[in-house]
């Protein structure tokens, strides 16, 4: 789960970059900008498609991992709840990144999206260490790995009961920030896209 979370920014950067590149090749974004009226419907549809692909890829990864643990490594008494809830937090924590990277891809191209995706991978790795203990809640690149990790800690029976309230508080605060950020990013992206007329040569 942690490996998926760390690699997620780079994968999102590549996927959003490829999607924007295909739209650019299809008549300089004319399909995206002119296929529906109002045009924000096309933008919302494309963004939802990207998020749906993210859900499918994470689900396939988790299912494959669980099948390997159960039938190849023969691990007994697997707790499926940890992986399912962890995957859900991973999806929720990555939604904001899709708005960020899709914007970068449309405005500046695939190269910029992949470059920032690589930087995001490093950022996520750092935020998963002690460096991110305080600031992770305010860093979109840390949400997926931290929320899924905290959720996993709560599921362990061996955890100190005194630490559970702290983990629950961290998850609740982080979740509120994630929800608020997604709403803000979605609103801002709709306003921006409704005024965007395609990438210019000087952008």
TrEMBL record:
CDD domains: ABC-2_lan_permease_MutG (cd21808)
Keywords: Membrane, Transmembrane, Transmembrane helix
Domain of life: Bacteria
Record bears the keyword Membrane: yes
Record field: transmembrane: 47-68, 80-101, 107-127, 171-193
InterPro entries in the record: ABC-transptr_permeasesu
Name of protein: Putative SpaG
Species per Swiss-Prot/TrEMBL record: Bacillus subtilis
């Amino acid at each position: 789960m942690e490996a998926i979370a760390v690699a997620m920014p780079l994968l999102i950067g590549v996927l959003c970059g490829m999607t924007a590149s295909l739209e650019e090749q299809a008549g300089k974004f004319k399909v995206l900008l002119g296929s529906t009226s109002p045009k924000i419907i096309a933008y919302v549809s494309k963004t939802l498609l990207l998020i749906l692909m993210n859900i499918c890829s994470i689900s396939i990864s988790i299912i494959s991992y669980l099948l390997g643990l159960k039938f190849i490594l023969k691990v007994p008494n697997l707790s499926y709840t940890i992986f399912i809830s962890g995957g859900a937090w991973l999806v929720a924590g990555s939604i904001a990144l899709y708005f960020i990277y899709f914007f970068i891809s449309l405005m500046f191209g695939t190269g910029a999206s992949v470059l920032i995706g690589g930087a995001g991978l490093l950022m996520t790795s750092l935020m998963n260490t002690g460096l991110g203990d305080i600031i992770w809640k305010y860093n979109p690149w840390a949400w997926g790995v931290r929320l899924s990790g905290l959720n996993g800690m709560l599921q362990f029976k061996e955890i100190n009961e005194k630490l559970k309230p702290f983990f629950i508080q961290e998850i609740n605060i982080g979740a509120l920030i994630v929800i608020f950020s997604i709403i803000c990013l979605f609103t801002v992206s709709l306003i921006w896209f409704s005024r965007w007329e395609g990438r210019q040569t000087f952008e």
